[in-house]
Specification:
Shape: globular
Strand content: 25-35%
Radius of gyration: 14 Å
Largest sheet: 4 strands, antiparallel
Length: 95
């Protein structure tokens, strides 16, 4: 499993121009089964994506499809982790 942390490096006005494209990208990744949760950071300085376990190389490739990445409005930090304990509803995430 991966935590992908996005940090905006451009003003929110530039981020907002790409927001519809970014949401379409997220929906596509959900449909493909790659993402399981996502949302904005509070305060709105970026976002967080929870991604299923695939290889790190695949995650790095998936990120390059994000309009925020392609237009250089966000930086990405990838953290891999192995969930060993979850609430019952998220047992499917345990490895």
């Amino acid at each position: 499993m991966f935590i992908i942390s996005l940090t905006y490096i451009k003003p929110l006005e530039e981020v907002d121009v790409l927001l519809e494209e970014h949401i379409a990208y997220l929906k596509e990744q959900y449909a493909l089964g790659n993402f399981v949760a996502s949302g904005r950071k509070v305060p709105r300085t970026g976002g967080v994506i929870l991604a299923r376990s695939v290889s790190r190389e695949e995650i790095e490739t998936i990120i390059t499809l994000d309009p925020f990445y392609r237009h250089h409005v966000a930086e990405y930090e990838i953290t891999e982790f192995s969930p060993t304990m979850t609430v019952e509803e998220l047992e499917f995430l345990r490895e």
